[in-house]
Each structure stands twice: as C-alpha cells, then as structure tokens.
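Our consortium's second objective concerns turning raw sequence data into structural hypotheses that experimental partners can test. To show how far this objective has progressed, the report includes one record in full. It was chosen at random from the queue rather than selected for favorable results. The single chain below, 242 residues long, was entered without modification.
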Amino acid sequence: MKKGIILLIIGLLGVTGCYLAYRAYGYVRYINDPRSQAFMQWATSSNVDRSSLITVQREACPGAPFILPSDGFIGLLYNDPRGPYSSRNPHQGIDIFSNTEPGLTPVYAAYDGYLTREETWKSSLILRVPDDPLRPGEQIWLYHTHMADSDGNDFIEEAFPPGTQEFFVEQGTLLGYTGDYNGNSARDVWVHLHFSIVKDDGNGRYQNELEFSNTLDPTPYLGLPVNYNDASAEMACIAVSP
C-alpha cells in the first residue's frame, strides 16, 4: 500500500515538473521572441519612443484590396498564442494599438461594404462585403471593436447609431475612433482597435467572431505580415499572390 502511494506521489511530481518546465520554456521563448520584445517596448516606452512601432497604411499595399483600418502598433497578431490567448485558443484578428488617449485615433472602413451596428453594441461595428475580393462569390464580414471608453461611451460616428443596418460605406470612410472598452471585464486592454475578417454562415449572417475557425487570415487582404507564424520584425507591405 505504501509503495503504491510513493509511486503515485512520484508520478504527480513528475507531471508537475514537466508542466513547470513547459511553462518555463514558453516564457523564455516569449521573452526572446522579437515580436514580444516590440510589445514590451510599446508597453514601457514614452509616446515619442513608440513612434517607430507605428504602422500607417492609408493606401492599400500593392496587390492587396484592404487599407489598414487604423494607424498604430499592430501588437497582437492573427493566430497569436500569447496571453491572454493560447495555442489552443489563438487571437482571431489583429489588435492595432493607438499612441493616443481614447477617442482620438480615427478608424476607417478597410473596404467597401454594408455597415451594421446591432442594438446592443456599444463599441462595435461590422461591415458586410458581398463579394470577397480574394475569394470571388464568397461573402465576408469585417468586424471592428473597442471603439468606446472604459465606461462604454462610444466613439462611433453619429451616422451609425445602435440599430443601424446595411448602411453602405466606401473604403476610407471614417467609422469612429479607437478606445479601451472591454465590457464587464476588469482587464485593461489599452487603447486599440480589434479588427477581424469573419466568415459568412452561408445564410447571409456573420459567424461567431470569438471562434478562431470562423475567421480568415488578414495578411493577404492587407498585404502586411500580420499572421503570428509569418510575422517579421518590420511591418511593411509584402508580396501578395494574385
């Protein structure tokens, strides 16, 4: 009986040791990752020192259909496993962090589309693109959120009040301004825009954006290396396959 208990304890200690080693490996990899070093630079630097990390892409990259919807540091990438995400539940879009206070950095329509703002949405908009420019015949949706302050006061343009449905906007239309609203969560998300490309459900509605499998990689649409697995230290236009 005692031998069995000892073996059980040894087994538990072994599992715990493996888990701690795995966590330590992940932490070291995170610290040494250039993408994480840039994130740490953004978190600890002054507004002036942050300027080198900011991406501005008001015109579409060569061969890409979308413009970047907001200026800023693209700090969390598509398929990003870093906290608060994980390899099992990666980031389903990109986060563009603003070098300003809430309500000052503009958000633009990345592409022509039909805008909807659901009645309950305080900080979010979604654009329906009837014909995906990279997958003709497919419909996609462009989701934007965090466009409100921490108390839920929105920075969305007055032309798009709650309940707006199918309002056509052209690429480059001002939609609102970035904010730091995070619902009922106490977690500080900093001032940023979360942008994702959401698949259609086949019946003319957008799928659940929180599910990674319901989203598309924005890299070929933006012409920027925004996929975590392929990201480079420099956020600049890349070659896009036709």
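The partners drew two points from this record. The beta strands are 73-76, 94-97, 106-108, 113-116, 125-129, 140-145, 167-169, 174-177, 192-199, 215-216. Confidence is low (pLDDT under 50) at residues 17-29. Both points have been shared with the crystallography group to help prioritize constructs.
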